[in-house]
């Protein structure tokens, strides 16, 4: 200082400076106390420098709104938490979940047992199916096996086997291609061939049991074609030669000539009028002076097989044969289905029978009344 007055001015300024330093320290302490441990004064200074006082106030207001929103959300979450805790408490006291779990375990156990039972049944079913197929293929009744051999010869090998299933009474036929057909799906001629073979086999079966039956056939070959008729005639001839009595009736000349060429005893029956008026009797074909058509040329004629002498039959008169009864019932059922008329046709046939008076007149004109009625 250059003088006392300047020196004393320095003292006053020094005193003011000390007061300002103290005030500045107090403000620093207040700011530090207000900021707490989260922020520092330098960070606040940076914010002031970046946004200014007005910008900080607006930022403060927006942050306050966000805080309010967070508090509202927090309140809602607390409410939901309370509801969840209450629901958990209720569910904890509820036994339905345990019951559902128990039912689920029981259902799983039942499913496992059913799977095991299904496997057992599947294996059993497969084994039974194999047994059934083996039975149907190898253990058919004796009569059906014999009828199959007759059918094979009657159809010249086109149909080889007659058989029935293990369950049911339906007759089935196998053809040469290995196809299985029901008798109902065969043509009329083939179906009649099947029935002819079955009848011959049944006659043989009855004969082996002591009941030797004659066979009476009325135009059974009328629906056969030429080749099948020749084969059937040959089989019938051999069947008769083996010891069975067989009477074959026909009104067709070609069937008569077919048997004549096979050297079968053919008889011509007289007219009904001649029987009544002249006591006419049947005569041999050669004695009746009936023209016989020459035997047609056959490119590959059927071989004539000489049947061996018939062996004595083993008679089982006191034994009931369930297989034979089953075969008879199956044949009868198939015949009823094949020959039964629908209701309107049956009514039409039986509603207007021929009166007895004109029968003699019909015979005089060569008309068979029974055929007319049919």
Report what the structure shows.
This protein has 374 residues and is mainly alpha-helical. The protein has helices at 4-35, 41-93, 96-138, 142-154, 188-208, 226-241, 253-261, 272-278, 322-339, 343-351, 359-364, 369-373; strands at residues 159-164, 171-175, 180-182, 215-218, 246-249, 267-268, 283-284. Helix 6 links the parallel strand 4 (215-218) and strand 5. The termini are far apart. Residues 304-317 and 341-374 have low confidence and may be disordered.
Essential attributes:
mainly alpha; three-stranded antiparallel sheet; two-stranded parallel sheet; disordered C terminus
H/E element order: HHHHEEEHEHEHEHEHHHH
Low-confidence stretches: 304-317, 341-374
Major beta sheet, specifics?
3 strands, antiparallel
The average pLDDT value, as a whole number, equals 78
Proportion of residues in β-strands: 5-15%
Class by SSE composition: mainly alpha
Going across the biggest sheet, name each strand in turn: 1-2-3
What is the helix tally? 12
Please state the overall shape, judged from the principal axes of the Cα atoms: rod-shaped
Distance between the termini: 168 Å
Rg over CA atoms: 58 Å
Helical content stands at 55-70%
Count of distinct strands: 7
């Amino acid at each position: 200082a250059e003088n006392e007055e300047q020196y004393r001015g320095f003292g006053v300024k020094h005193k003011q400076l000390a007061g300002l330093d103290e005030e500045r320290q107090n403000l620093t302490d207040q700011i530090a106390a207000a900021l707490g441990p989260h922020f520092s004064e330098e960070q606040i200074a940076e914010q002031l420098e970046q946004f200014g006082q007005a910008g900080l106030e607006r930022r403060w207001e927006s942050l306050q709104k966000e805080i309010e929103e967070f508090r509202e959300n927090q309140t809602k979450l607390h409410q939901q938490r309370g509801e969840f805790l209450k629901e958990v408490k209720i569910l904890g006291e509820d036994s339905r979940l345990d019951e559902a779990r128990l039912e689920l375990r029981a259902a799983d156990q039942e499913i496992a047992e059913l799977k095991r039972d299904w496997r057992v049944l599947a294996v059993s079913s497969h084994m039974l199916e194999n047994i059934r197929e083996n039975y149907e293929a190898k253990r058919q009744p004796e009569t059906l096996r014999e009828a199959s051999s007759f059918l094979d010869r009657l159809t010249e090998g086109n149909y080889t086997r007659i058989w029935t299933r293990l369950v049911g009474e339906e007759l089935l036929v196998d053809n040469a291609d290995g196809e299985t057909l029901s008798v109902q799906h065969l043509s009329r001629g083939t179906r009649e061939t099947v029935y002819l073979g079955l009848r011959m086999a049944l006659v043989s079966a009855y004969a082996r049991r002591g009941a030797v039956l004659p066979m009476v056939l009325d135009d059974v070959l009328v629906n056969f074609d030429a080749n099948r008729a020749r084969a059937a005639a040959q089989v019938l001839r051999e069947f008769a030669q083996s010891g069975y009595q067989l009477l074959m009736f026909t009104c067709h000349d070609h069937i008569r000539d077919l048997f004549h060429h096979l050297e079968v005893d053919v008889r011509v029956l007289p007219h009904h009028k001649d029987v009544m008026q002249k006591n006419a009797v049947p005569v041999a074909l050669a004695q009746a002076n009936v023209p016989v058509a020459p035997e047609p040329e056959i490119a590959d004629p059927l071989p004539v097989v000489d049947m061996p002498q018939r062996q004595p039959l083993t008679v089982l008169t006191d034994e009931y044969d369930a297989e034979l009864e089953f075969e008879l019932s199956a044949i009868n059922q198939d015949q009823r289905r094949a020959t039964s008329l629908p209701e309107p046709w049956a009514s039409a046939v039986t509603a207007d029978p021929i009166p007895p008076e004109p029968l003699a007149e019909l015979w005089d004109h060569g008309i068979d009344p029974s055929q007319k009625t049919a």
